[in-house]
Amino acid sequence: MDGRRPLISARHGLVAAAHPLAAQAGARLLANGGNAFDAAAATAAVLNVVEPFMSGLAGMGMATCFIAAEQRVRVLDFVTRVPGRFPTGRGEESSRGGFACGVPGCLAGWCELVKTHGQKKLMEVFAPAIALARDGHLVIDHPGATLLQAIAALRDFPCYADWCAAYLDEGSGEPGPGFIMRQSALARSLETIALEGPEYLYRGELGRRVVAHVEALGGSLTRQDLETARPHWLDPVAVEYRGLDLHAPPPPCEAFQFLLTLRLLDGVDFAGMERDGVEHLDAVWRAIRLAAGVRIAHNRPNATMLAGLLSEPQVAPLRARLREAAPVEGPTGPGWPQPEDPAKGHTTSFAVADRHGNVVCVTQSLGGLSGSGVVVPGTGICLGNFLFWSDLDAQGDQPLLPGTELTLPLAPVLALRQGRPVLALGTPGSHGISQFQTQVLVQHVDFGLDLQAAIEAPRARLWDGRRVQAERRIPPATLEVLRARGHDIEAVPDWSAKLGGMQGIAIDPASGVLTGGADPRREGLVAIP
């Protein structure tokens, strides 16, 4: 045995998610006649239960979907706007409490997937999450470690008592070996949502309770913010790479950094390079830095500007810089955080494919670790803190203005070959998302690794200046040469959760066989119906 996870393949459906129970829930929907859209919503809802510190119905996210009936890719954007009464220019910054609470978007997104393209009723879709929330689940490994991190991060905030009531006071009490997390309040909320629909939150009693609690904590969320929150179907942005048409969410989402990185690497011949060798890693890291600099300098581009940024006249000079000997400095600014920020980057991603040819790739988050930390009493609902990701200075680079769209680095990606989907790929990681997507895609497409092996391959995270965090599985001699080339490398553990939690699906266009990939850096699992 080589220690690798086995390849999981199927003909009639597959789910790859960051937690086994979530992947199994999605697969169960597929087995019971649901399609990829039903299974995606079921998987997302179970992740709310088993990874409540990463994502939930009050978070935000995006889904990139191949809709078989329409033979096209579309993006569902459920990233909501800044509350209309947000105090512009407020001179303080807080990632916790009422001030940090944004408008819930995930529930609207999940329900839109089911309503527009699904085949099941909400009660059937949410049934696995309701049962797990009510009965409880064993918290171990990565979720257990994350629970302890959340306790340490939140214990000094006034919202901690309500948070504890939701996650610690039922069942076994304080976490330890054998801790069972039960969330009966969340089960009741999900059950009523399944009966009444998303309007229970966005126009009904649940929404009134959420707004009243946030207002009492000094937040700016209003009933109008909830009532006007709507997911939006968008056309993706696409580029070609090695015969693949890669589709990602459009701006204000920052996924175009990933597409630009591939445009730069399209001029690199990896065929003669050693995999994970100096030339391979140097080219990829330099391309990532160059693309990030463009994204930060031209954030939120309109369609015309974005087409220019991805065009050959703009890309060619950047490709030339890849071949220069001089080191490439990483950009600085709010879009490329200088220090490691443990309050950001707690996100999850998953992918679903069904027997009908539909493919859904979702990335969703609460923003930071347990979001704002605000759990509305009696509901089990934890509110996100994506407002903390922008600039509170109205004159800043990414000003946080009332009613405006948020700019987030989510990048669920679909690849098509000759009009047919062949790859779905997504990961958490904040501004590392586009970096990790690039590294895995090069391993899979350019070096020919199967998807599981590509996900398991060692990765790196680039920061400001020349700083790089690289997994120790990269040979020390290779890292030394890369240091000599100007990369300030810090070796991190062989398998580091700092470097994402990739989940994906590869599809053989000839046979239709689905192969899943799940990241061992998280609790990832591939499940089949």
TrEMBL record:
What Pfam families has UniProt attached to this entry? Answer: G_glu_transpept
Superkingdom per UniProt:
Bacteria
Specify where the region named Disordered lies, as residue ranges: 327-347
Q: InterPro entries per the record?
A: GGT-like_enzyme, GGT_lsub, GGT_ssub_C, Ntn_hydrolases_N
Protein name per the record: Gamma-glutamyltranspeptidase
* Species of the source: Rhodovastum atsumiense
